[in-house]
């Protein structure tokens, strides 16, 4: 049993926090939203009235916050985690944030005497609820060894990607590939259909051929071939355009800093930006096929 402070009980954090409590850990939960704290209490955690109260006797702090500015503020403001956590507490941030913000957070934590790991996830709210997330972890070896048993209560694939920020690097590179491959898959279905194939026939052929990819076989953007994909429920997310766009912005800015050529990544960013600007930020990202077909 580990004493855990969990901060950020939103769409993702709620399920993750519940899984830690279910695994027998003593979880103190905090969020700015009181209803989220009440929900966490219903799933086995104990609510806290502030960050200070949540982390006061924590061995590990887990956070699941919207973006880098929230993470830096929650950990390093004068009333934040680093000011109130006992020495030796491990910081484990699972939010998706910029590589540079994650490295900055790890540096500031180290200067204050704490180890901080970045541990962003893949798997969405369904994975968070089911405890089947994939974690991509950056930070020192001893921090990874301490974090692993807790991550296993929330996920099924746990990867140590290297030093601080490498978890975020893996996450944004993966999601950039996902954004690109979904547009490519949508274009391939549209082309095949325009040339006279029905979608199922093209799926049967391409999913057994060299064009096969996750966007086709697990998350197919046309209704029918993959019954669980959002295409079968009018592109209700799933993983919304706005969230894909957040990750593509992070990838574009990281690529700029690193001098990496991501021409297709930038094109994907532009295509999802247009969708968002047209008011489709809440559409599942596979709904880009509607744009490719000229339907929206
Ligand atoms: P969310 O907006 O539902 O939850 C964030 C929570 O943080 C909210 O409950 C909010 O009240 C709380 N919060 C914000 N500032 C706070 C503060 N200062 N102190 C305490 N609580 C604070 O977001 P989400 O969908 O749960 O996503 C969280 C993170 O996970 C994001 O970085 C996102 O990119 C990443 N992510 C999301 C998904 C997904 O499918 N939703 C998938 C993978 C990764």
UniProtKB/TrEMBL annotation:
Organism from which the protein derives: Hyphomonas johnsonii MHS-2
Protein's name in the database: 3-hydroxyisobutyrate dehydrogenase
Listed pathway(s): Amino-acid degradation
An individual GO BP term: branched-chain amino acid catabolic process
6-phosphogluconate dehydrogenase NADP-binding domain sequence ranges: 3-162
Keyword NAD (UniProt): yes
Keyword Oxidoreductase: yes
Family: Belongs to the HIBADH-related family.
